[in-house]
Amino acid sequence: MFIIGHLIKAVAVVVEMVLNIYMLIIIVRAILSWVNPDPYNPIVRFIHNITDPLLDRIRKAVPVVFGGIDISVIIVLVGIAFLNSFLVGSLYSLAATFM
What we know:
By secondary structure, this protein is mainly α.
């Protein structure tokens, strides 16, 4: 049974890494919106392509802008923090029961 515990723990570590990397990409996207980067830069295009689908869904669901500040980024960051705490924490607890 300890193999299942280690497998679940490994999945939790990978999920945590993916969520943290996506959170950093969202933060970089917010910073890039302040400086008006070159839209033909491949890094900028990659960041926009990876974040636009989620941010566009949030913008359609909650079309609120406070004084020019896009709140969709904040909602996504809070959602990622919630998933990181709830999902990863639950996976770690589940893995501990099998060890």
